[in-house]
From TrEMBL:
The lineage of its organism: Bacteria, Pseudomonadati, Planctomycetota, Planctomycetia, Planctomycetales. This is Lipid A export ATP-binding/permease protein MsbA. InterPro entries: AAA+_ATPase (IPR003593), ABC1_TM_dom (IPR011527), ABC1_TM_sf (IPR036640), ABC_transporter-like_ATP-bd (IPR003439), ABC_transporter-like_CS (IPR017871), P-loop_NTPase (IPR027417), Type_1_exporter (IPR039421). Residues 116-392 form the ABC transmembrane type-1 domain. GO terms for cellular component: plasma membrane. Pfam families: ABC_membrane, ABC_tran.
Length: 737
């Protein structure tokens, strides 16, 4: 159990001084706990005896002095007998008796010194009246209890601070290591699984560390103090009580193994439930549009029920732990108490010839021994109640640190080369790539034998149906993942030989699903270049036509966009994303379906921006459709099919030489004609290459069942924030680079 939790110790070490102070207060709690229990002895003496405490102490001292003198005489006689003994066996017996008497003499002297100290420092302050003495003893008990409570508070507070600081450091390291992983690994893990590690797993570990620094330190100290007291009263009976210890160890070892397995399953079940919740609310429009509430409820009910079943296994084991501990504790106390009661009632020192006491036990001694034995069992009971929580914390630590130990599949070179600003070419050489997973030992290739050369400043459109590999191919350029074979070269330098930060500093990316942070519009634009001036941010916003709708927002640039930009329209979000890429001033621009999910007005504005901004930059446009405005931007078109580059050339060349491209163009021409007849809508030379997406999945290729039905926003429909706006006038100002 501690092996996993021990991984947290390097994070706790910086706060060791605070932790040591908390241990000091835990020691104080243990001593005060023992003090409270030891008060049972004077209470019994006052209530049951007919003497005051001073008289009792003097009587005890006299008795101990007599015992001391007797032991000395016995030892002296044994030494004389040793001199007369002839055989070695007799000498051995006598030596053994001398040793026993010497030990008893030492014990008697200790008790004598203790009684004298009590007489001089405690009993003399007590009243001779028995009731007044009892009241004074109870006052001491009250003060000790208050002090113990204060020490518990201070210890818990100090431990809480250490735990929170340590968890903050662990969370920070986990976040750093997670961001350092490659895109493929993180995508395979899933957002919900990652979130559960930062939330549920971290909370479980936090609770475990609270217990580890609090009760796990404090309760054993209390038990040790009580054990010391019990051994001091009668070590033989105390040892007899602990005969049950090996059995208890075996029982809790079995409990522990079962608990850790059950905890792992419970945490994994919780992660799956998080996944269902996340998918449901992230896809809320789809759920509502397709009346999928019932299906999502069924999915959630299944995972919720599974989590309940896994959790109930933990509850069952946890529920068994406490009564089992109480039973074992009662057996342990009874093993010491029954012989002790017999010795008190009979006045003997031994049972069945086995000596269990140095002298006849009194009732106050029996009460004190019982108090200390119960004082040992109480911490043991509390520790057993937190045993299950520590096992859950251990399982959570396993998940956290196992993930923290993972290393990115995209490895940075130790001796990076310098990468000047891209100005020559980009080459994809003999590329093979497959998405690897634990479920598949030999996954199918997503890219196969790709060879492509792109000159600096060219604009390349990469087209193909869903699953053809176009996004996968371009995602190799910023090293979201590395090819299994082959290389990507920028200006003759393998991108694996340069620093990731240097490579990605030259790349701007605009994706189909526009990703904005819940910050202001200015912060989202500045994300591409944190050191940019306000004037540069405004210029980028103007180039991307962001300023058009900013005038209609009350806070302007300081408007918060909401989670994932939910307060803005799709077109507005896309223009902010484009402004972010413009501010970065990249030498390489990647547009991944950047205009496929926005209105026609925003698409027109973005095309105008791209016509100016792509000049002098190497641009890759991943798209399903090519309108005339897009064709005016591109230098060449790369056609992807089943992970292979089937053709590359201009639009006219591909119509003549590429059967696949020609068929797709023919299908889209029919679709365009149908749209004109049915909807009275025309868009010049729209070429969609997204039909056959379903066919791609079952291996029949992108051509087959006819055109995919698409819906275009009519030309008069604009972004809700732009109704009545005039088209942008005048040429765009070109950014210096």
């Amino acid at each position: 159990m501690l092996t996993s939790i021990a991984r947290t110790f390097p994070f706790i070490w910086p706060y060791r001084r605070r932790l040591m102070v908390s241990v000091f207060f835990a020691l104080a709690v243990g001593l005060l706990w023992g003090t409270n229990l030891s008060i049972s002895y004077p209470v019994f003496e006052v209530l049951l005896g007919d003497q005051n405490m001073d008289q009792h102490a003097l009587e005890e001292i006299a008795k101990l002095e007599a015992d001391k003198e007797k032991h000395r005489q016995d030892i002296a006689e044994l030494h004389e007998e040793m001199e007369l003994a002839g055989s070695s066996r007799a000498q051995s017996r006598i030596e053994s008796e001398i040793k026993v008497n010497t030990d008893e003499l030492s014990e008697t002297e200790t008790q004598l010194a203790w009684q004298r100290w009590l007489l001089a420092h405690v009993y003399k302050h007590l009243s001779e009246d028995r009731f007044s003495a009892f009241a004074a003893i109870m006052g001491v008990l009250l003060v000790a209890t208050v002090l113990k409570g204060i020490c518990v508070f201070i210890q818990e507070y100090l431990v809480g601070g250490v735990v929170q600081l340590s968890i903050m450091s662990i969370r920070k390291r986990l976040f750093r290591n997670t961001l350092a992983l490659d895109y493929q690994s993180l995508s395979a893990e899933g957002t919900s699984e990652l979130t559960s590690r930062f939330t549920y797993d971290m909370d479980v570990l936090t609770n475990g560390l609270y217990l580890l620094g609090g009760k796990v330190i404090r309760e054993p100290i209390k038990a040790v103090v009580c054990l010391s007291g019990a051994l001091w009263i009668n070590w033989r009976l105390t040892v007899l009580s602990f005969i049950i210890a090996p059995l208890a160890g075996i029982v809790f070892y079995r409990f522990g193994r079962t608990l850790k397995k059950a905890s792992h399953r419970s945490i994994e079940s919780m992660a799956r439930m998080y996944k269902v919740i996340g998918e449901t609310f992230d896809s809320l429009k789809v759920v509502m549009a397709f009346n999928g509430q019932r299906a999502q409820r069924r999915r959630f009910h299944h995972e919720n029920k599974t989590f309940f079943e896994k959790s109930m296994k933990l509850v069952k084991i946890d529920a068994l732990t406490s009564p089992t501990t109480e039973f074992l504790g009662l057996v342990a106390v009874s093993l010491g108490l029954f012989p002790a009661v017999y010795l008190v009632l009979s006045g003997n020192e031994s049972i069945w010839g086995i000596r269990l006491a140095n002298g006849p036990m009194t009732l106050p001694e029996l009460a004190l021994l019982y108090s200390f034995l119960v004082g040992i069992s109480d911490p043991a009971r509390k520790l057993s109640s937190i045993y299950a929580k520590l096992k859950r914390a251990s399982a959570a630590a396993d998940r956290i640190f196992t993930f923290m130990d993972r290393r990115s599949a995209v490895v940075e070179t130790r001796q990076p080369k310098q990468l000047p600003r891209h100005s020559v070419s980009i080459e994809f050489n003999d590329l093979n790539f497959a998405y690897h997973s634990k479920a598949e030992h030999t996954p199918p290739l997503a890219l196969r034998e790709i060879n492509m050369s792109v000159m600096a400043g060219e604009t390349i459109a990469v087209v193909g149906s869903n699953g053809s590999g176009k996004s996968t191919l371009i995602n190799l350029l910023p090293r979201f993942f590395d090819p299994d074979h082959g290389s990507v070269m920028v200006d003759g330098i393998d991108i694996r030989d340069v620093r990731l930060a240097d490579l990605r500093a030259q790349i701007g990316v605009v994706t189909q699903e526009t990703l904005l942070f819940d910050e202001t519009i200015e912060s989202n634009i500045r994300y591409g270049c944190p050191g940019a001036t306000d004037a540069e941010v405004e210029q980028a916003a103007r180039q991307a036509h962001v300023m058009e709708f900013l005038a209609k927002l009350p806070a302007g640039m300081q408007t918060r966009v909401g989670e994932k930009g939910c307060r803005l329209s799709g077109g507005q979000r896309q223009r902010i994303a484009l402004a972010r890429a413009i501010l970065r001033n990249p030498s390489i621009l990647i547009l991944d379906e950047a205009t496929s999910a926005i209105d026609s007005h925003s698409e027109l504005l973005i095309h105008e921006t791209l016509e100016e901004f792509t000049t002098g930059r190497t641009t890759f446009i991943i798209t399903h459709s090519l309108g005339q405005s897009m064709l005016n931007l591109v230098s060449r078109i790369a056609v992807m099919d089943h992970g292979q580059l089937t053709a590359m050339g201009t639009h006219e060349e591909l119509l003549q030489e590429c059967d696949l491209y020609r068929k797709l163009h023919h299908v889209q021409s029919q679709q365009r004609t149908a749209l004109q007849v049915v909807g009275g809508y025309s868009e010049e030379n729209v070429i969609s290459l997204d039909n056959g997406a379903a066919d791609e999945e079952d291996g029949r290729g992108p051509v087959g069942t006819g055109p995919r039905r698409t819906t275009r926003t009519p030309p008069l429909s604009q972004d809700s924030a732009h109704v009545g706006d005039h088209p942008l006038k005048g040429p765009l100002r070109k950014k210096a680079h």
